[in-house]
């Protein structure tokens, strides 16, 4: 059996009471937000990076609030195949997140273009569209941090966000002109 590459992972095995379910939901959300991937029932993995300790502290705090327990292990794959499997699952999860991001960018662009075509130039609509693009910016930052191994083309993802921002700028100028703010 070929020895594993030195890629290090943190394996998280939380145990929480079944009720109330809000603790399980909060933990699941925090694990997902941190970029953890599920390896099996109740077993999660994160790449061991500089920011991982802070994420583990948050996860441990949530588990402690529920009177549960968490086992955190430093690990690497036993074989190259094992390491590749964990990495593939991590990259697959990141690619799925980026695919969803691109879909949301496409929706935002379509919405902005629809508002321009129908000349819906109101400050309320502008506020709504600004919030949507701001949400995309936050999401892009979060995904960029989680995508430790570059599962997606960062340049392409930034270009998608830039397209949204440019269309928002165009919409903003049209709204300002329509309401007499220019």
Order of helices and strands: EHEEHEHHH
Strand-pairing-aware structural class: alpha+beta
Envelope shape: elongated
Low-confidence stretches: none
Q: Please, what is the oligomeric state?
A: single chain
Measured by DSSP, the beta-strand proportion falls in: 5-15%
Mean pLDDT: 93
Amount of helix: 55-70%
Main β-sheet, spatial strand arrangement: 2-3-1-4
Largest sheet: 4 strands, antiparallel
In whole angstroms, the N-to-C terminal distance is 70 Å
Helical run tally: 5
Radius of gyration: 21 Å
Number of strands: 4
Structure description:
By secondary structure, the protein is α+β, with helices and mostly antiparallel strands. Helix content is 63%, strand content 13%. It is built from 5 helices and 4 strands, in the order βαββαβααα. It has helices spanning 22-34, 52-65, 80-117, 123-146, 154-179; strands spanning 9-15, 37-40, 43-47, 69-75. A 4-stranded antiparallel β-sheet has the order 2-3-1-4, sandwiched between helices. It is elongated and about 65 Å long. 22% of the residues are buried. The mean pLDDT is 93.
